[in-house]
Automatic annotation (TrEMBL):
Record's signal peptide: 1-24
GO biological process, any: amino acid transport
Assigned keywords, A-Z: Amino-acid transport, Signal, Transport
Keyword tRNA processing in annotation: no
UniProt record similarity statement: Belongs to the leucine-binding protein family.
Protein name: ABC transporter substrate-binding protein
PANTHER family assigned: LEUCINE-SPECIFIC-BINDING PROTEIN (PTHR30483), PERIPLASMIC BINDING PROTEIN OF ABC TRANSPORTER FOR NATURAL AMINO ACIDS (PTHR30483:SF6)
SUPFAM superfamilies linked to this entry: Periplasmic binding protein-like I
Naturally occurring in which organism (per UniProt): Alsobacter sp. KACC 23698
Length: 382
């Protein structure tokens, strides 16, 4: 009788264990996004959030990742690094499969060490060069870092535009300082003298004094590296004061939000663009339509970043053949994702040992209120 009861109990426990195991294997994959949903970076964070949500909706509609649906929670940093750190700690307490964001480099800088300690992947939007040079093996970009983009745009100004002098207008945060340091280094290597080095503040409203400094310096080109809203204000003021030098920038300066806010002042602006929904790539055009249909506005590069972050995680998870959070960073390193195998990645991309990306990029110009791509630049290591 005792043997019979013991055997029955063991059977019940075994069945319960199998049910629990099956439940775990079918449980949703939990992602947590920590981003700038309010404050000065709300444009950045909202675009990233909407892009990620669109990707998740598409993936879930097709059965999820390895048969498991994705669930995502969004936490707001309020565009503040201190809040970002607190929200990431809160996110890690929930044991997510991976973390998305933040978008601001300063917030990534203070959160990445926490995520590294947890040993999970952090797929973020920050572009400061230093982020992936600190030896954090769990950090991955969704766009070019400044060490990849600044040589391209400096080369264009020095060689194509024949510039000998430049004014540099930059925002005084981790993003802006990193860009300023990298572009001035590239200028020096090409014999371009910086005749005005102008630091501005995040959220700055009045650029009159800065425009006067630029005008008085009389540079051959003006390189502008600010956040979206500040970029639009700076362009308006530079135009109002009749600064005649070409206005050149990076992805942010030519973004959709800047064009909308700056109006005619954006016309004629040129720059290197790592990600844009104006790219002459059919997959990106299809993404733009789906995003616009869902959210009723045209996304900027941050919308693409959020979308790609999810598809990078999907491709790596399917590559490793299992949902293993601690294995995911190892799988992402060195991974090349191609659109023929994962259409959601939009363009072929290779992730290097530092979490940096190599893929096509573009040279663009704002013409009649629209970003027009003038040239497609190939992968560096094709």
């Amino acid at each position: 009788m005792l043997k019979s009861w013991t055997g029955a109990l063991a059977g019940v426990l075994l069945a319960g264990g199998l049910i629990a195991q099956a439940g775990a294997q079918n449980a949703p994959i939990k992602l947590i996004a920590v981003g700038e949903l309010s404050g000065a970076g709300a444009t950045v964070g909202t675009n990233f959030k909407n892009g990620a949500d669109l990707a998740i909706a598409e993936i879930n509609a097709k059965g999820g990742i390895l048969g498991r649906k994705i669930e995502i929670t969004h936490l707001d940093t309020q565009s503040n690094p201190g809040n970002a750190r607190a929200q990431v700690q809160k996110a890690l307490d929930e044991n997510p499969y991976a973390l998305l964001g933040p978008g601001y480099s300063g917030s990534v800088k203070v959160t990445a060490p926490l995520v590294q300690q947890a040993g999970i992947a952090q797929v973020m939007g920050g572009e400061a060069a230093e982020l992936t040079q600190a030896g954090i093996d769990t950090l991955f970009r969704t766009s070019f870092g400044q060490q990849s983009s600044m040589p391209k745009i400096a080369k264009y100004m020095a060689e194509d535009m024949k510039a000998k002098t430049a004014a540099v207008m930059w925002v005084n945060n981790d993003f802006g300082k990193g860009g300023r340091d990298m572009v001035t280094k590239e200028f020096a290597a090409r014999g371009v003298k910086v005749v005005a080095d102008i630091s501005t503040e995040a959220g700055q409203a009045d650029f009159a004094a800065d425009a006067v400094k630029v005008k008085n310096a009389n540079p051959d080109v003006v390189f502008i590296y600010l956040n979206e809203e500040e970029s639009a204000r700076a362009l308006k003021e530079l135009r109002r004061q009749n600064v005649s030098a070409p206005l050149i920038g990076e992805t942010t300066l030519l973004g959709q939000k800047v064009i909308e806010l700056a109006g005619d002042a954006a016309n004629g602006v040129k720059g290197h663009v790592g990600l844009t929904t104006d790219a002459p790539v059919p997959a990106i055009q299809d993404f733009r339509k789906r995003f616009s249909d869902k959210y009723n506005y045209v996304p900027d590069h941050n919308g693409i970043k959020g979308y790609l972050a999810v598809y990078m995680i999907k491709a790596a998870t399917e590559k490793q053949g299992k949902v293993d959070a601690k294995e995911l960073p190892k799988t992402l390193h060195g991974l090349t994702i191609t659109p023929d195998k994962e259409p959601g990645i939009l363009m072929e991309v290779t992730i290097d040992k530092n979490g940096d990306l190599d893929r096509q990029s573009f040279l663009g110009e704002v013409v009649n209120g629209k970003q027009v791509i003038k040239e497609v630049l190939p992968k560096l290591n094709k």
